[in-house]
Structures are given as C-alpha cells and as structure tokens.
Specification:
Blueprint (H helix, E strand, L loop, with lengths): L9 H12 L15 H8 L4 H12 L3 H6 L8 E4 L19 E5 L6 H11 L17 E9 L3 H28 L12 E6 L3 E12 L2 E13 L8 H26 L6 E2 L9 H6 L27 E3 L4 E2 L13
Parallel strand pairs: 3-4
Antiparallel strand pairs: 1-2, 2-3, 4-5, 5-6, 6-8, 7-9
Protein name: DUF7924 domain-containing protein
C-alpha cells in the first residue's frame, strides 16, 4: 500500500502537522522515565512481541479506555480490543484482521435513533452477522490499530496487517457517506490511523480513500518513521495518539453521526470482496465472499506477506436502496 499520486487533501495535511506539533502531558513514573529509559530499551531489545507489548506498547499507543477512566470523559464513547479477531467485519480476503490493539466506538456512543438507522446494516451481530461498520461484536467503526513485530522483515508485516485492518475501517466510512451522497467530504481525507512498532522503532500512518466515481482506492500516508530508542523521540507517538483521541476523534465522530442521521430507513449495504487483480488481496491471501464463515478463517497471525507497496482498490462497493412498500411508486405513496 502506498501514497496516492493525488496525495492527501490539504485539510488532512494540516491535520497531520497539528497532531504532531501539539504536545500534551505525558506520564511521569513509567519505564520511559529519563533515568531508566536506557535500561528499559536494553531489556527488551532481544525479547519477543509479548514482552514488548507488556513493557512499552501502551507508552507508544496510550489506552483510550484508561484515559477515560482517569477522567477524560470525552473518551467514554470509545472502546478497545486487544489481540481479538474482527469476526463481525465483512472480509476483504480469507484472512481476518486481528490487531494487537485497536480502538473504535462503543454501542452507547450512539443514541437510540442513530443506532436504529444503522441497525439494518448491522443485523444480528451477537449471532455473528457481519457488517461494514463493525470490527468485534462490541466495537463499531474502528479508527486506530497498533501492531507489534520483531525484526526488520516482520516490521513490514506489521505495516501490512495495519493496512488490511484500516482498509476495512475506511471502507465503512466511505460507504456511509456514499449512501447519503456526501462522499466528496471524505475523498482524500484521513479517516483512520495505524501504528507499527518493535523494540526500537515506530511507524505511523494515516489511511484515506481516493474516490473517482464508483472506483475507490485505499491508500496510506506515512506520518512518522523514527527510532524511539533515541530518548528525545520516545514520547512522539504517545503524544500523537493522544492528540488523535483528543483533537481528531470528536470531530470524526460528529461527522459519522451527521451522516448517520441522513440514512434512509431499511438501507442494506452490499460489499463485494477485492478483485484478484488488486494489491491487498494478493498480499493477504485468497478472496472470501462476504458471507464467509470467520470461524474457519485464518487470522493474521498465520498468514502474512511482507509486500508493503500496494494500494487496495475496490471497483464498486455498493448499497441497496430501501425496499418500497406495496402501493408506493418511484416517488413514494
């Protein structure tokens, strides 16, 4: 997956600068404390992913729910998952996403009226129905993933896993706005973020669609690529992610709610899988039909590719107009 030749919209370029420049407070008594930071890095440099996640991942990508618990009430609408398969998302390939960490919106974030608008597109999620708008059965419209891998080649795999997950996330937003004929508002705009890291380095991306009629391409924009083992850089990703939660997420959620309010009743979405000619499908395994059973699908721990230079293209992800009631003509009763 690569940058689009068209690039980001100017508003998203300004957004990236703002998220990098603002410097919120960081926690003081952690393994990143100045006097023990070097020791922390030494202890994890030859360790596996589980140890890296245990020691430092939440110091690179902070926990949204923990910040809410400590008083950031605007984050109460968020929910996170840890190493959990996205069983409720309509798949693009036969490999399901299973991010090390992801953040999206909880059910209670939506009023009953808004949820009723989305319900026809969600189905019976507890029974395993799949949707463009769900990741797990309790997470709606994810917008952030983090993957942790060890080694240079594995680092590229983390990038590809994030690209897969965030293509699903961005696809849902695009289809929501297409359904209300507002797709121009999200064209070339960052709609999700991802972070890949190992014991010493971090890469951060913004994920965005390029829409041309019925053709949709999904791209990523590199935001950061640096060594956090250099003590001067250790809080860059933490501050950036905190700004995503505090500065970007509220407006993103407002836009989602605005589009949801305009959905016609009983709208049903269709989401065909990627064609075999597209990059992401080549990278992530065989194609799966939208009604594929995720229980039999491999997760991303068992099927990976190191090719990180492909964009995903979906020729036409469409939606069905609501069915007319008896006696209604093209313009209604």
């Amino acid at each position: 997956m690569r940058k689009s030749p068209l690039g980001l919209a100017s508003a998203s370029q300004a957004l990236c600068r703002s998220l990098l420049e603002n410097k919120p407070l960081v926690p003081s008594d952690t393994l990143f404390r100045d006097d023990i930071f070097e020791t922390t890095c030494q202890k994890i440099e030859d360790k596996n992913e589980a140890r890296i996640i245990q020691d430092i991942s939440r110091l690179i990508v902070p926990s949204a729910e923990s910040h809410a618990t400590f008083g950031a009430k605007h984050l109460d609408i968020l929910i996170e998952s840890v190493n959990e398969g996205w069983n409720n998302s309509i798949p693009l390939t036969s490999t399901r996403p299973q991010p090390d960490y992801s953040v999206g919106f909880r059910r209670d974030a939506f009023t009953d009226d808004k949820f009723a608008k989305l319900s026809p597109c969600i189905g019976n999620f507890l029974a395993g129905d799949q949707s463009l708008f769900m990741a797990t059965y309790y997470m709606y419209i994810p917008f952030l993933t983090c993957e942790v891998r060890c080694g240079a080649a594995a680092f590229d795999i983390a990038d590809q896993q994030n690209a897969h997950s965030m293509t699903l996330a961005v696809r849902g937003i695009v289809e929501l706005f297409r359904a209300v004929k507002r797709e121009d508002e999200v064209n070339r705009k960052i709609l999700a973020f991802s972070v890949s890291h190992n014991h010493e380095s971090v890469r951060t991306y913004g994920h965005y669609p390029v829409i041309s009629g019925k053709n949709i391409e999904y791209h990523r924009h590199p935001i950061q690529n640096y060594l956090f083992a250099d003590s001067e850089n250790k809080w860059i990703a933490y501050r950036f992610t905190k700004n995503v939660y505090d500065k970007w997420m509220p407006a993103h959620f407002d836009n989602i709610c605005s589009a949801t309010d305009q959905l016609p009743p009983d709208l049903n979405f269709d989401a065909p899988p990627l064609s075999k000619a597209t990059g992401l499908s080549q990278d992530l395994g065989n194609l799966a039909q939208p009604d594929a059973n995720y229980a039999s699908m491999p997760d991303e721990r068992g099927s990976q590719s190191s090719n990180s230079e492909q964009q995903a293209v979906i020729p036409d992800t469409s939606f069905r107009e609501p069915k007319r009631r008896k006696g209604e003509g093209p313009e209604g009763p």
